[in-house]
Specification:
alpha+beta, Neuraminidase, four-stranded antiparallel β-sheet, about 20% helix, about 35% strand, globular, Kelch_1, F-box/Kelch-repeat, kelch repeat, repeat, Kelch-typ_b-propeller
């Protein structure tokens, strides 16, 4: 019934390797014991039923057996792993890899309910147990994800067919257990929502002020979008907060400067918007900081100076351990932001093989404690997509490792990282 042994996410947990191994072993052995016990009970009941010679006794025995089994199933459903009870069962499950959750959901109704209604992910978030998967699209209506902990590729269901939406500019955002893809349908903006819990696409909830070409970032179950342009091309300064659990949008105070084709990140519990363009095509070099507690915006001059050009992609930025990094696609360099001096420091080179067109077609993302560059060498016809990673360390130049490679389109249209 289980596809593989339970596995822990070592980088997401503060415990030692030895403690993690004990969690893995205990969870797996308890699951085996639970499944074995149920199997023995079923076999015993079958033998008892066959050996009953008297029809009346058989009926009575079957009735009692069904009643006992029903009570046992309800008890196991509540206790999850009956040998240790519900609370410790949940504590074990939280530390299992979410790669195993599909298999674990097959054990009993309690497991299924805990996983499918999102309760387990909410508990993981409270305990700060996070596992990051990379989601990206190299074809117009297809998405796939990569699990760096298992080295596993997962194909998502195809998006619902919509020619206008597929051919429009799209933005993507992973928040909570959802992947949101924003695009246009003729003259209206629409949102498609992929749910990790149901492994399916459905219409998402539209913003209060629909837009495209905005800056965005997520933090847990919440995300912020800022700037962009509306259906008529007007450049916006407005911002909104999305709550994935409530599936609702809340309007926030507006930025000081309207901007589109900008980028967003969370850092030090604040939201930042970098770069972008104004309505007259002027390239912005400033950034803006939004304080979630105070509800105010602050302009930071020259925060995105030199990160992108007038015809290039929005700034390619990512945050690891509350440090801001950028991929300078023109110079093929990795840079780090010096918060105290408001300057960018060159650290070294980007991986050589992934190519881009002024930054378009290349993804630069934070994936837990590592930076990920996703792209591919230029090729005729169907190409190759590669994932390169580097764990930043102070005073150490980037050393990129190719962690995955597969046949695919080599141009990355959209990319997001889901941490849950």
């Amino acid at each position: 019934m289980l596809e593989g042994h339970s596995c822990l996410i070592s980088r997401a947990l503060p415990s030692s390797c030895e403690q993690e191994s004990k969690w893995v072993y205990m969870t797996h052995r308890l699951l085996e014991k639970t499944i074995s016990k149920r199997s023995v009970d079923v076999v015993s009941e079958e033998h008892t039923e066959i050996e009953e010679k008297d029809l009346g006794r058989r009926k009575k025995s079957l009735k009692l057996s069904n009643s006992s089994t029903s009570k046992s199933d309800r008890r196991e459903s509540h206790d999850l792993i009956s040998a240790i009870g519900r609370d410790i069962s949940i504590s074990c499950l939280m530390r299992c890899s979410r790669s195993d959750y599909g298999s674990l959901a097959c054990i009993n109704q309690g497991f299924r309910s805990l996983i499918k209604d999102g309760e387990l992910y909410r508990l993981r978030r409270i305990k700060k147990i996070t596992e990051h998967w990379v989601y990206f699209s190299c074809n117009l209506n297809e998405w796939e994800s990569y699990d760096p902990y298992r080295g596993r590729w997962i194909n998502l269901p195809k998006m619902p067919p919509n020619e206008c939406f597929m051919c429009s500019d799209k933005e993507s955002l992973a928040v909570g257990t959802e992947l949101l893809v924003f695009g246009k349908e003729v003259t209206a903006h629409i949102v498609l929502r992929y749910s990790l819990l149901t492994n399916s696409w459905s219409p998402g909830v539209g913003m209060n002020s629909p837009r495209c070409l905005f800056g965005s970032a997520s933090h847990g179950e919440k995300a912020i979008v800022a700037g962009g342009s509306d259906a008529f091309g007007a450049i916006l300064s407005s911002a909104e907060l999305y709550n994935s659990e409530a599936q609702s949008w809340t309007t926030l105070p507006s930025m000081n400067i309207p901007r589109k084709m900008c980028s967003g990140v969370f850092m030090d519990e604040k939201f930042y918007v970098l770069g972008g363009m104004t309505s007259n095509g002027e390239l912005l070099t400033s950034g803006e900081e939004y304080d979630l507690e105070k509800g105010t915006w602050r302009i930071i001059p020259n925060m995105s100076l030199g990160l992108n050009g007038a015809t290039g992609a929005p700034p390619l930025i990512a945050v690891v351990n509350n440090e801001l990094y950028a991929a300078h696609y023109a110079q093929q360099e990795v840079m780090k932001y010096d918060k105290g001096n408001n300057v960018w420091i060159t650290l070294g080179r980007l991986p050589e093989r992934p190519m881009s067109m002024n930054g378009w077609g290349l993804a630069f993302r934070a994936c837990g404690e590592q930076l990920i560059v996703i792209g591919g060498p230029r090729a005729l016809g169907r190409g190759v997509i590669e994932l390169h990673s580097w764990i930043p360390k102070d005073g150490v130049a980037p050393e990129w490792n190719m962690i995955a490679r597969k046949q695919s389109g080599s141009f990355v249209y959209n990319c997001a990282v889901m941490g849950c």
